[in-house]
Amino acid sequence: MEFYTIRQNAMIELVEKKSRFIANIFYVENKDECEEIIKQMKKRYYDAKHNCFAFSIFDGKNVLQKCSDDGEPSGTAGEPILNAIQKNNLNNVLIIVTRYFGGILLGAGGLIRAYSNSAIDAINSAGKIIKQPGMEVQVNINYQDNEMFKYYCEKNNIKILNADYTEKILYKVELSQKQYEDLLKQQKENNGPKAINLDEVQIICRKYVEKQI
């Protein structure tokens, strides 16, 4: 199953009647990661009045969502942040909006708008991508095939994660299921003057990868 998420982590700041709203948005993959980031952000902004958050995580089968007002009036912070995530159809995203109180009460409506706008601005700053089922793979090649393999990856939008230069070159790449099947086909056919000698193609782990549009 494909899903939308953010392209990169980001931070924005919004000022509303002297109150500062600092929104941090993160790509996350599980609840434990969310909890650790929330803990770190509360330490970073230890002197802030509130650190409100919302997250949505897709584990391949189910979606887990949670939000917190962190002391703000019920429904004025966490829910607006979560609503922004939901309206953008995002998953594997955590948004934390930190508020430094400026001395002027905003009222329920003002708080909802401020937290909602902070989350929306953070999403826009981070950008959106589509994730699809894929994998991380190790590919072993001979040195004489190196440039040809790098060109193959560039041409087919395959992300090279790492290269280890030993007797042969051990590449770690990230690719979709379709890209993996095409790579196996390239290995099997392995003929012609432009063929790449792929000695071994081994799946390291299954993961979600960015879909090329």
Helical run tally? 5
CATH topology of the largest domain: Ribosomal Protein S5, domain 2
H-E order: EEEHEEHEHEHEEHE
What amount of the residues lies in strands?
35-45%
User: How many structural domains?
Assistant: 2
CATH-wise, what's the superfamily of the largest domain? Impact, N-terminal domain
Main sheet attributes: strand count, strand direction, barrel closure: 5 strands, antiparallel
Number of strands: 10
Which shape, going by the Cα principal axes? Answer: elongated
Tell me the radius of gyration: 22 Å
CATH class of the largest domain: Alpha Beta
Write down the overall mean pLDDT: 91
Low-pLDDT stretches are none
Termini gap: 16 Å
Please give the CATH architecture of the largest domain: 2-Layer Sandwich
Which class of secondary structure composition applies to the elements? alpha+beta
